[in-house]
Amino acid sequence: MYNHFTIILHRKCTASCDLCCVQSKPSCQESLDIDRVKDYISSSIYCESIKSIGISGGEPFLEYDKVKELITLIKNTGKKASLMTNAYWATSYVEAYDKLTELKKCGLSSIGLSYDYFHSPYIKSENVSNVLLAANDMELNAGLNIVISKSHLAGEAIDSLGAATKEAQIMIFPCQKVGNAAINFDDTEYLRTRKSAGCYCKKGRGYSVTYDGTILPCCSPSVFSTALSIGNYEDLDVTSTLDKLKRNPYLYLLRTYGFDYFIDIARNKLDIEVPEYVVSACELCALFFNEKNIKKFDSYIDLDLVKFHGRFKEKSLMRF
Ligand code: SF4
Ligand code: SF4
Of 64, 112, 213, 285, which has the fewest beta carbons less than 10 angstroms from its beta carbon? Predict the structure, then answer.
């Protein structure tokens, strides 16, 4: 059951990391309309199952005043507010402490940071340390996301941050072959340790509203390379979004029966080459459900499997 969604406020970023899944950079212009974002967030008041709402980018601190407004609104809607950043703005401990104090007063519950070898050409490790130390001192939850590849594991990033990582919740993710990474990295760089057989989608708790309003069913980097959109936030509120997510047969099947169901179709009906090992289930998602391949699966989906559970009736509703 979904209990979280993330708003990708805009695509613009101060950095242009070699692995960026949304291919952000300073010249990007795509951005969501703030009034529509507010309406969408406000509509979550009717959905008790939604407990938290995140703001992300690009780099959300580039629109700091809007971020403050949205965090205040999220709090007033009765949800927890979280924020992702690359910490470019935290040029000193005092700067980090002051901004986080202000955001905490608005209602910020937690801050997430992205830092690793791939961010290091653009962001000083001191900036990230400043945010982690300030968050720790004011008892604000802080998390650090580190992406790794075969040549660049987590140790070098953690070492460069020193004692600041002591209290942070560190999450380590293997790099997915999508976005900039798919262009920039050799295929051997990916840490493919999972067998394709037996993979399930396990991230059904958070969805994303992307910088052009497209709603995607999770927050995984790979989902940006899929055609798994369930609609656009211009046409939906949170209640109807959750309903469409629940009734989407692709999501239902890959979370109920797992990827084996699709691997069988890919191998035996569609002649799609399925790797034996993958970075994670999400790599299969990007392979099977990209713009080109997803249409091929449409005619092989056995709707009886879905109908059986009374969730889905018309093929025309299969995809947005
Ligand atoms: S900091 Fe994040 S959003 Fe910005 S370019 Fe790097 S990976 Fe993309
Ligand atoms: S398997 Fe697909 S839907 Fe599930 S979390 Fe990964 S990208 Fe998202």
Answer: 64
Token digits for 205?
Answer: 């708790």
Tell me the average pLDDT across 118-142.
97
* H or E segment to which residue 215 belongs: strand 214-216
> Is residue 148 situated within a structural domain?
yes
Q: Tally the domains of the chain.
A: 1
pLDDT in tens, 32-50: 999 999 999 999 999 999 9
Q: What CATH number should be reported for the domain holding residue 103?
A: 3.20.20.70
pLDDT surpasses 80 at 177? yes
* Alpha carbon nearest to ligand 1 atom 6, residue: 17
201 lines ligand 2 (CB under 6 A): yes
Confirm or reject: Cβ of 253 under 6 Å from ligand 1. Answer: no
How high is the pLDDT of residue 299?
87
Expressed in angstroms and rounded, the spacing between residue 58 Cα and the centre of ligand 2 is 20
> What element of type H or E holds 114?
strand 108-114
- Does 80 fall in a domain? yes
Rounded to whole angstroms, the Cα distance separating 74 from 44 reads: 9
180 found inside a domain: yes
